[in-house]
């Protein structure tokens, strides 16, 4: 499923630079004609933001492909660019008009200069000659094996250059280069997602006959005479990711790209290079194809097609570019051996609705139900087992993927995926299919991590759902046909959304009959999956009325007068003071009511002395709050009192009432009963 | 108007700049660091030592160098292609911001003179974009100086560079600005400005609310459109309406509003209407936990002097719900609304983010739109009534009238 709700990868191009004994060469880049703005626009607003800070200087117009739609895009681009520039220029010069004029001059200048430049026949990438870029991006050995970050105006070149070791190998090794058999360890590459079977490593590539020879004589002669196929020839390779992050996000975007994509990809390549000279072999293959094309006058487009056809590395680079720049997961298969999956982390749900001037990511699920964390330590373990998965893709497709991978765990994973229903919690699924709960949670996290599913509280017809305030209304017309195909005989999607637009009601109110229930729950799952609906949940606070306060005060006065009881007031005052010091801010209001209570306790009460207030943390109540709570519960039967004590900690506005029942193992009915008994004292807020 | 949202934007923290150094291409020796502050920030194999004459109070280079100049020299003194561009490079956990300049003239030994004034920051400084303009400005200034009088190539005047960059470093780190006279006609004038996010797009149906007293800030030099529209920014009028009332061009009005938004003088809300629907967001719990916000709320929403108890206000806020128009809500709660300005009550919630407006969207029931319909372009589901009404300048009722007889569903989001 297309998920357009991602952060901005700002990826413009990926370059491959190699240094060998014959010098530095610019081996490959993708896309064939990179623009200085990403071709793929993940979300309109994000890309718009990105456009603000893009410098026009590096996008030679003749290199960007023509075609009317592109031209339009370029136009728009330049307009937003101009505006964005003035915004930034504004900050370093006081006068707007001056900077704007300057801006114009500058742009004209650039235009002219470029017009002249472009006439030259040099192959230019991102506005630079290939050789120049190659030299620039082939850093000295001291800058290798660490983050490489170079920026030119607003373009960032990000990489993890890797240099051959002094002994001519690519990897520290105890024994001589053992190829194929060493199953992925030894490189500190624990974070590589090795999916393929490393044992397949020894198998040669189909069309690389003579490189195998090179393989055989590979070893120690690094830096020795340059014979064609010897991969020892290469001393450095560098996969460079070119980004154009918006100015303010520059740091976070590049860092994220480096941590999640750049470094992992480079390490995987190094692993394959160390094993059998994969990178060098592929680099040579690409260079040969380019030379050949040069001789034969093959067109640029054909050449790129040939390269992608024949070089698995070039193809992998193109996959990484295409998928990562669309914020998707890139699956690549290197050297016929190593499967690698790369992704930038994405925000999969939000709890705060952005204001109208904040960047919008419509379609992103809106909820505060996030008790199922990314790993075991996060989230609420008690509650996590009462969550379930909502698949974001077709279940059959997921099962097919699982079958294709076939690892030890795929059988139980498939069993779990089949058994998992959005109406059943993990615990219920565990009971029904016999897979232990902790295994289910591990598998669930795996599926969430790879964006196959989202963790949600199980959907239930008794719960209330509304149209999500963050629903992507613009996507609606694309969803309607899908919906119609899935639920042809039921109410059309717009009608259903209209129903959910009214005053919130339990979902069961929209289900025409008991027989319709399963189908309608499927519809609900569809709505939640596409971010069209969200659950409205109740949150509650305890309000202390002034009547209660007055009653407590009156009682204290009576107790004071009675000689048998110790006077509670001084003690109370002491205690109250102590607590206040700890929580002064929260209890500032409480304090004033306490002091007013104490200072006036000899006068007769008037209505104004007491004011309603809210107990913020009822389970950590101060002594005066405790007296109020005691007064509130005094007339209730003991079973209600006992239940109330159990649920009181949820009445601080942070916990959904809906989850109390599962969290505490109390019947929903009983929760309702207790809260009903305290009706006058509870303030409910309904949100997601 | 609303305290707390007023543009209190961060100041740059102190001593961000680790070093400033001046390097140039030496015809005989290649790239060279000529001056650096503090001394010894970069290690370099060449024999150039910073002069310790001048006003220098810098400590002897006891601390280890920040990085090795040789390693990155190709990015500091680069080939022509990179000159007159902002080039930054990271090494050894430092970020070096430079703006290499190349001057071509036959008077120079190799017919060119390449130099760079670079600023060194910690690599993990997130907000370094401020320094980009500093580096640009310094480069352009010295370029001009060199062109005017050969300031850098003349050995007598070039000695003064050390004192200059030292002063720039100290002043920027301590005061975030500097004003250093160089000669009769040249001064280094730099101020660090925080970089703000580009202003979001302003729509015709947005309603700007002031966070500052614009009238007090304004003087005769302000933009004419700005002077015209400011009196109409009252938290009620939409951008479109403001341009009409002020008799100002709409697109100019929008630009002005964007400028004000950029500097944090405004926040945007929706059009307030009694026919609108409002409901709570998850932020309502922050209101309950923040006594000062509650006091602000109490003071803002009530007409009369007796303060309305907060639990009472909270109950009112939480009784706003999806599917219930404000008008109906007012009727249901008529007795409780004594002393409360409903418009202020709602806009406080919107501005603070604990209320949201549930918009109405017309959606064709079949998903397909007949292009011939008058409102066809608004019926893809992506346009709400506010937008349609302000665009067409008609009332909601008229729009409903136009949709009459068509199979259109109204979805509230």
Automatic annotation (TrEMBL), chain A:
It is a peripheral membrane protein. One of its GO terms (biological process) is meiotic cell cycle. Residues 86-95, 112-122, 574-586 have a biased composition (Basic and acidic residues). Residues 55-122, 169-231, 554-586 are annotated as: Disordered. It is found in: Vacuole membrane. Keywords: Meiosis, Signal. It holds the Pfam family HTH_NPRL3. It comes from the Eukaryota. Residues 1-23 form the signal peptide. Residues 212-224 have a biased composition (Acidic residues). GO terms for cellular component: GATOR1 complex; vacuolar membrane. Residues 55-68 have a biased composition (Low complexity). Belongs to the NPR3 family. Mediates inactivation of the TORC1 complex in response to amino acid starvation. Required for meiotic nuclear division. This is Nitrogen permease regulator 3. It comes from Tuber borchii (White truffle). The lineage of its organism: Eukaryota, Fungi, Dikarya, Ascomycota, Pezizomycotina.
Automatic annotation (TrEMBL), chain B:
Pfam families: NPR2. Residues 31-62 are annotated as: Disordered. One of its GO terms (cellular component) is GATOR1 complex. InterPro entries: NPR2-like. Coiled coil: none annotated. One of its GO terms (molecular function) is GTPase activator activity. GO terms for biological process: negative regulation of TORC1 signaling; positive regulation of autophagy. It comes from the Eukaryota. Residues 38-48 have a biased composition (Polar residues). Belongs to the NPR2 family. This is Nitrogen permease regulator 2. It comes from Tuber borchii (White truffle).
